[in-house]
Structure formats: C-alpha cells, structure tokens
Amino acid sequence: MNPSPRLLLTIDYESWLAPSRRYDFLSPEKRFALDEGFAWNVIDPILERLKDNKASFYIVGELVEWYPDLPQKIFDAGHEVGFHCQVHRPLTVVADVEQDLQASAGWRKKYKVHGYRAPMINTVEGVYPLLEQNGFTYSSSLYAPAGTLLQKGKIWEAPVSTYPLLGKPSTFHAPRRMDVPLVLGGEFPYGSSFISGMFPKTVFKIIEKEFKAGLSPVIFLHPYEIVSPTRWPARFARDLLANPLLYPFTFNKSAFLDDLLRNFPISTVEGYIRETTQ
Ligand SMILES: [Zn+2]
Asked: Tell me, what's the pLDDT at 46?
C-alpha cells in the first residue's frame, strides 16, 4: 500500500559535542562531564514543541547510560525510539558496529528498537545482515531521492531524502553519504540539517513539491538545533575553527521545525514503513 504523503521527521538524539570528531577518543566520563546535562535538559522542551506529532528519535546509547530515563520519556510521549549508535563516531567497520550492537542490546530490547540510523549517515552494505541478526527491521542510513525504499535482505532501508536534479539514480549501494560524488551526481541532500540550516526556505519549498508528487520525505534534526546549548556556539568555537563546515549544525532550527509541524502531516519512519509494506 502506498500511504498518503507525510513528513518523516527524525531526530538524531546526541550530545552537542557529537558533530566534532575531537571528542571521539575522550573517556566516557569526560564526554558526560562535557555534556553538562544538556541532552537530558532539552528533552522536555523538544517533546513539548512536537505537540501531538510523532517523530523517530534515534538515540546515542551512551546517553541512555548517562540519563537512564531518557528513552522512557520519549517512548511515553508516543514517539519511536530508534538507535543511532552506542558511542557517536564514524561506524563503517562491521566489527565496530557489532560491538556497538552488543553494548546497546539491553536498552534496545526494553524499548522495542527496530530502526537504525548510522552516525554521519555513513554505512556499508555489511551492516544490514548484522541489523537483521540484532532484531532491527529497518535502517535510515543512506541518502537517496524521496520515495526510495530499498530492501537489503530482510532490512528495509528508508534513506534520508535528496532531490535529484539530474534524474533518479538506479542503484543504491552503501555508502551513499553527503559527499562530493553525491552532489556532483545531481542530488541535493535537503533531508540533512546541514542543508536546512543553510537554506531553510528552499528546503521547505522542496518538501511542498515532494508532497504534491505524493512522496514522503525523510529529514533529520539534532537536539542542539532545536534548543541551543548555553554559551552557543562559543563553546563549540574550537571545533568550528578546525572545521567551518560544522557551522550550519549550530544554527537554531526551531522556527523551521515549527513551520514543518504547522504545514505537513508528520509520521515516524517505522509507522510509515509498516503501512507501506503491509
Ligand atoms: Zn549523529
């Protein structure tokens, strides 16, 4: 069945320090101290902002260790609890993903996690069989034109949306991440919060257009883009100097989010896949 178009709103729920690779090799205790309670303190304002709209939250498992009530809060508000990774870093080696899945098995089972979002939307084909073995039903870890729903073994792949300017590609092998070949291939990755930070009006218009074509776009935001951390973006200044491309991730997108909520029906990815594939 092809459900009516809706916006598949996803939130990669991670610490404000996740975009920079500078923190990857700090001890978990240091990362916890640096987060300063941020990921816990902003969950209520974010849930309130969403009102009755149900989104997919892909949680970094480390946050569940720091703030054990976090997934329950999201779950109780009727949202989908998904898995982003246990510790946020590039995860393109199958053995590393396996370790991450083992470390997160307990809480994933408790909250009936079925969806996987690879960190940095960057994965490899070898991850799909692992997801299947670990109780997942779907992944959203590639970029591809809206309306693309792929089958990778028994795992559905619902990619983050791009707008194809040069015609739709015919093959979709992982990785399909936001890089120069993707953009040179004519795909505008508007589902990324990097792009909605730079061009919110253009992204809004593209979503309108996709809806008219009967498509359901997948887009993502981060908690620190909905509620800006204190001393922001100053506390991230060193990372911005090292990588100015991170700048759009520091923009506050709450007005953009409100616009989306006002104008489009919203759904979780899991709900959408269930309706589409039954
Ligand atoms: Zn992330």
From this structure: 98
Residues 6+ apart with CB under 8 A from 212: none
* Distances from the Cα of 66 to the Cα of 33, 60, 70, 87, angstroms: 10, 10, 9, 12
Name the CATH topology of 7-277. TIM Barrel (3.20.20)
Tens-digit pLDDT profile for residues 218-228: 999 999 999 99
Q: What is the pLDDT of residue 1?
A: 65
Neighbours of ion ligand 1 (CB under 5 A): 12, 14, 119
- φ/ψ of 221, rounded to 5, equals -135, 170
Arithmetic mean of pLDDT, 170-174: 94
pLDDT by residue (tens digit) across 38-73? 999 999 999 999 999 999 999 999 999 999 999 999
176 CA distance to ligand 1 middle (Å) = 15
Count of other CB atoms within 10 angstroms of residue 213? 9
Q: How far is the CA of 12 from the centre of ligand 1 (A)?
A: 6
Kindly calculate the radius of gyration of the chain based on its CA atoms and give it in whole angstroms.
Answer: 17
- Span 115-157, pLDDT tens digits: 999 999 999 999 999 999 999 999 999 999 999 999 999 999 9
DSSP label at residue 231: S
> Measured in angstroms, how far is the CA atom of residue 1 from the centroid of ligand 1?
31
Q: Separation of 201 CA from ligand 1 center, angstroms?
A: 23
Whole-number Å distance, alpha carbon 20 to ligand 1 midpoint, is 10
Q: Indicate the domain borders of the chain.
A: 7-277
Tokens read off for 212: 């008219």
- Rounded to the nearest angstrom, the distance between the alpha carbon of 117 and the centre of ligand 1 is 8
How remote is the CA of residue 87 from the centroid of ligand 1, in Å?
10
